[in-house]
């Protein structure tokens, strides 16, 4: 199983910045010595920094600290921070091309995955963490969403229409934050997502280089094809559950993996989850993102997700979010 990690250059730049307290930097370096790596060897050999280091350095890490730390780390993100994604990032021609680079995120980190949903209103990007630790998930989701907004500002300019929504309560000390006041950063969302309006997707980047971008994308495609290291079993199952427009049954997934349904159940239990939990999470994320897009009626969304009638879907959605689908659309309107 591939361990959730941080890209080496991003981690090294973080240690050299003022974002972390000196004591935390010293603790990180003690961990690195124990594991036989240094900042220079991490960058030279492309050795990523495991997210478990953050839990070791911050043993009392909670939701509030994870949010503050994720934002502090994102403030250090540079255009050259993200390894193989850096060249296409700098040479992208539009906001749409920048955001589409999230497709290649597995090349630099398996700590989270994005789900891109296009509509006439724009692009909604859902974020799901895979660290196995809810607070580390919050850290990486906050970091990824905030870093992406920062990079968009560096490459394009005003990004006031782009909004980041996080699926937990706002930590103390952020009430007067300019992003919160302006509505660019919001909390208590049913899932974590980034929203980019259609008119913003076409905004032109400052350093557009179509030839360099196409070449870089071709290299990313090759790298993605030869990427080594298996995903966790539960992550593999989740990807199969998400495939296509219709959510799949446990038996169909077991058949594709050439195993019995009971073996599928046992292996998921070994990783602390169930097929039902994975399927419910996928349903919830799909439902939320479809409702945000506002391109289909609630009845159509219910049918697309495999519900026999609107009532069953509404009951399930209220169980997930505490709101009916129509209430959610009224209260979660996105600019």
Task: Explain what the structure shows.
- The chain is an alpha+beta fold and 335 residues long.
- The protein folds into 2 domains: 5-225, H-NOX domain (Alpha-Beta Complex), CATH 3.90.1520; 233-331, Homeodomain-like (Arc Repressor Mutant, subunit A), CATH 1.10.10.
- 53% of the residues lie in helices and 9% in strands.
- The strands form 2 sheets. It has a 5-stranded mixed beta sheet with strand order 3-4-7-5-6. Strands 1-2 form a two-stranded antiparallel ribbon.
- α5 (63-74) packs parallel to α8 and α12 packs across α15 (275-293).
- The longest helix is centred in the middle third of the chain and has 22 residues, at 134-155.
- The two termini are 39 Å apart.
